[in-house]
């Protein structure tokens, strides 16, 4: 050994060793940088190419000046009008606006900042991230704990949820698999989670297969003339590439530089971003989403405002078809985007329907960004990626623990906070088009749009119809079911067998039956009774032994996580869907959902053909192969409540779907609703009456306590005084003044007599 | 409900109205139903601004049950009425009542046998909840008192700030009338024994002598915890020492004189 070391130490040999190591490293680097991406792309069926955008055109200096003048004027006028908006006399207002428009300091203050920068740097063409990074190569980030750091901007955005729609290991909420394990907990084998691979109630959420599609629609109005329409996940995601950032699912490797050039900085940062530029384009490589890369958009960049966020996010709040969804007014100058008429949550963020939006709050006031990472809060049930899982986003951050100040019953109202989340009273209803039950398997022809669309067999924004109330401690299951329990430790509260697994409201059942009868006209095979049963009692689709296994897993695996921490009653939007499932990978909570191919679906309405087309996608085929099984699908299935690992039986054999059945998910999903906040909350009697909106017994209260809560003397007294005084119940009575805590009151005013 | 609170319209501070369930359960009033004390005011909601007359009146309830106490509730009431808290015309003392010091939802009298240090801490906590600035690090209060912090840690405020003679704990004296005589405590017949140390078990109180007092009483009080035998012994040793020194001096003097003479 010694001799060997000695020979090594001779200068000549040492030099040789050094060279060998260096060459080795170089080869590895080459393999990683050049060979790996090629192999990976080929494996998952990806393509990359330099991206060009037709609207990224150079302008002349004169054009820049003209644009600068126009944009400054319009920005200044908007600001001036906002300031003198209160003045009643129209003429006086006009004069004041004109005065402000010509005030030097006002002019300086309201000129878009980048006009000067672009002029000085002689930037006459916007070429995507490249242009921005010239100055913003790094940014300073202030973290929630007060730290500051300097990060590489491109790196920061590429590794954010907005670009890759998944979060790093250990991220996400406190999501628990039906096997009782926390998803991606420390010590477990992390799998990528997020929208990229989420199997949720909206097929096509496999963003791999539903990234960008061009659909030939045949709207009534054009008499059979084909109109191309755009559809796909990419419309709301900032990567402008031909597919989502699949590379980021792997522990090594990075998105190719050409794909990073497709990042759309302006959709979040420009006040003049034109959503009409957001449509699917086809080039020699494939389909991808166009974006606004005009100088006009570039010159008006700044911090992301509510308007920017809502370019995409009204989709999952108010919904595409929401009256005040501005982005939906600009569907594309060609290949117009298809609107989803059913709302995902139906709780809009707009001045018309949300008190915070009306107060002019920006999204980022509550969701305070750290660089390009934006917090969603620590609670959530929807297995969507979360960049900053430890950062709080909650009402009390601003409103304190005693938020009610106006009402005479403020103390009593504040007292409720221990059990009741703010949203429970302050979101009174969701939008009418909030989808509760959606049948993807039996689509309906939409004559106006000229496409087949999934049939929403039940939509409602009403309380206990479109949404209900559940105990929630911040934990959720792998399929978006809120976890929590009555603080009394009840074993009666059983949402996954009750509230989320059964629809008993006769009105809803009747509505579903009506829809089933209507569907039967197009699909004669439908057995109306069986259809209604499966839709309103999805557990009826389980065999007795599966039900028993479900019961056991709930008791043994989930009960403990329901009892974690502090639960409060929150409103949850309910959702279920009938989709094709791969029955080879089935458990007591559902089976692997198969995606649809948008084009086939919308154009032909042949849902089976649409599934076949979607699962022919190379990446879905890879999913059914051993490496993917070992890398993530086994773990995925374990969380899904399917024992025995992922079965790689590919469900498409000789062009036929095998072991694939249309099914309703075995329970409804529950989505948190936090926007659409109303300034005035619910009245006492809405909950505290025998026909109140809270089913206290189902929420785990004892019979006696439930009876008490339904017939509170206090509420009776309030009603009396309300009728006596002719005031509304919530305003009757007197201000609660203290006596029992008088000691503490005096104690808090420190004084000394010495 | 722990969140029962409101924001004071003038100060903006959150006023907490909630009652700590555990605290109440362990308090002397733990067995009572809310309505037992809040008889009239809380029968209906909304509650009135001020308690109805007769509600929340300690003496009203406690008048009859003096039997177990060394002094009657009427005496306590009389003591309180003489106290600086009651007679002061400072606006800060306005509305001072039993509840200002004794939170009825937490109050629990010190029990015989409880560690003295804990009793001192609890009792002084009540005073310091208003007079907190006295014990601040920069405070110059009680500067005259040797070993100030040691005193604060081992005697109750009321041990000096109430009249020594009649154990009237509720007759809190103004600063100038409070006890400043060290010997009141630091003597063979200390008032402290009768007051703070009455929480010691009978057995402990009955003990005499240095060892018993210093060890079993958890405190050595200079001047109080003394042993007469030891005192006499040390006096004898000191006398002997003086004699010895005198004899030595005398010897030296005599020897020197003899030398000079020689």
Name the features.
heterodimer, A: 754 residues, alpha+beta, 3 domains, seven-stranded mixed sheet, two-stranded antiparallel sheet, 29 helices, 13% strand, B: 262 residues, mainly alpha, two-stranded antiparallel ribbon, elongated
Strand content of chain B: under 5%
Count of alpha and pi helical runs of chain B: 13
Q: Which two chains touch over the largest interface?
A: A-B, 44 and 50 residues
Overall number of strands of chain B: 2
In percent terms, what proportion of residues of chain A is strand?
5-15%
Estimate percent helicity of chain A. Answer: 25-40%
How much is the radius of gyration of chain A in Å? 29 Å
Largest sheet of chain A: 7 strands, mixed
Shape call of chain A: globular
Mean pLDDT value of chain A:
88
Q: Tell me the span between the first and last alpha carbons of chain A.
A: 83 Å
Uncertain regions spanning at least 5 consecutive residues of chain A: 722-754
Q: How many angstroms does the end-to-end distance of chain B come to?
A: 102 Å
Provide a brief overview of the structure.
The complex is a heterodimer of chains A (754) and B (262). With 754 residues, chain A is α+β, with helices and mostly antiparallel strands.
Describe the structure.
The complex is a heterodimer of chains A (754) and B (262). Chain A folds into 3 domains: 2-39; 152-672, no CATH class; 684-748, no CATH class. Chain A is built from 29 helices and 17 strands. In chain A, the strands form 6 sheets. In chain A, strands 8, 9, 10, 12, 13, 16 and 17 form a 7-stranded mixed beta sheet that branches. In chain A, strands 1-2 form a two-stranded antiparallel ribbon. In chain A, a hairpin with a 2-residue loop joins strand 14 (652-653) and strand 15 (656-657). In chain A, helix 3 packs across helix 4, helix 19 packs across helix 20 (528-536) and helix 22 (598-604) runs antiparallel to helix 23. The termini of chain A are far apart. Helix content of chain B is 42%, strand content 2%. The N and C termini of chain B lie far apart (102 Å). Chain B folds into 3 domains: 1-56, no CATH class; 71-200, no CATH class; 227-262. Chain B has helices spanning 21-26, 34-37, 58-62, 73-82, 84-87, 98-101, 116-131, 148-154, 157-161, 191-194, 202-206, 210-216, 228-261; strands at residues 5-7, 14-16. Chain B is mostly helical and 262 residues long. Chains A and B meet through helix 17, helix 28 and helix 29 of A and strand 1, strand 2, helix 6 and helix 7 of B.
